[in-house]
Amino acid sequence: MNSQPAEGWRMVEKASELSRQGLEFALATVVWRQAPSSGHQGARAIITATGEMHGWIGGACAEPVVIREAQQVIEDRQPRLIMLGAPDQFGELPEGMTFVQMSCQSEGALQLYIEPVIPSPHLVVVGRSPMATTLVGLATALGWRADLIDAAGFTTDDVDTRSVVVIATQGHGDEEAVAQAALGRPAFVGLVASHKRGEAVLGYLADRGVSKELLDLVRVPVGLDLGHTSHPEIAVAVLAELVELRAKGLLDPQPGDTAATRPVPVTMSTAALHGEGQAHDHSHHAEIPQGTAIDLVCGMTVPADQTSRPFEYEGETYYFCCPGCRVAFEKDPSSYIPQEAPC
């Protein structure tokens, strides 16, 4: 009974599993055999970058050779058509085929096609803005793996060296999200913010000891420059640049990449979010909802609780949308506190 069809489907399922895990691997397929090789035409095997093999393409002579060639295919990301056998078994090989000698006493031979399988990018979007939701939907439509995570629940455990992180928190915890993402050393980090907001975030991180080497990797902007656009159009612009970077191989981890060895590019966006970066008049405000407060630095309405970084000054408690605003206030509170008009 021929078990190859069932084995072939098992390899398809295994390939799907590895792809979901974001792992690169090579798929080796026997396209021709010469008896007494134990491999069968159409047999497939999956080989990971670490040399783990799933499936069957031949016996003890062929297996180590195929693993070695497959690992090279993964590294080069170029498919190969190879002939395995003894030097005196073949005449002139067709153009594009590579001969690989097997030290085997049998007279069997195999012709294999080995191709790299590169998983789709893993996009992690931090935030719940309309832009963030749209970006996840667009990426999913392209076949990317995409996760939408609230800023409050985002940690380094959500990313790895293969992740592409876009932070779209609209000023709510930008600094913390960027710091968490950077610690995970992903392939890419982007922050959606205005120029002014981006400078504040980078300045805050620099004040907190983030290395110049890391900050020098900031590129402005992320996303195509479409001018004044809507939230869905900003998402399109961001994804368009990510697609371009992927096509150039700039979103792919390089061989040997680890969280300890790879610097992370932190990228800022100049796509203006509605109302961000505008001047605010702190001398008066509309009625403030109960349980909220005004961030005197940026004018944003924030919850009046521990989540908004409370700061005590002269018997009054002030609340802030982000660490950057609190730090600015700490340095010079009097420049932000509204002064009473003289009688």
Overall helicity:
25-40%
E-strand count: 15
* Distance between the ends: 101 Å
Q: Enumerate the strands of the largest sheet in spatial order, edge to edge or round the barrel.
A: 3-2-1-6-4-5
CATH-defined architecture of the largest domain: 3-Layer(aba) Sandwich
The SS-based structural class is: alpha/beta
Order of helices and strands: HEEEHEEEEHEEHEHHHEEEEEH
Pick out the low-confidence regions: 269-286
CATH homology-level superfamily of the largest domain:
NAD(P)-binding Rossmann-like Domain
Based on CA atoms alone, the radius of gyration comes out at 28 Å
Q: What fraction of residues sit in β-strands? A: 15-25%
What's the structural domain tally? 3
Just give the CATH class of the largest domain.
Alpha Beta
Q: What is the overall pLDDT average? A: 79
Global outline:
elongated
Number of helices: 8
Largest sheet: 6 strands, mixed
What's the CATH topology label of the largest domain? Rossmann fold
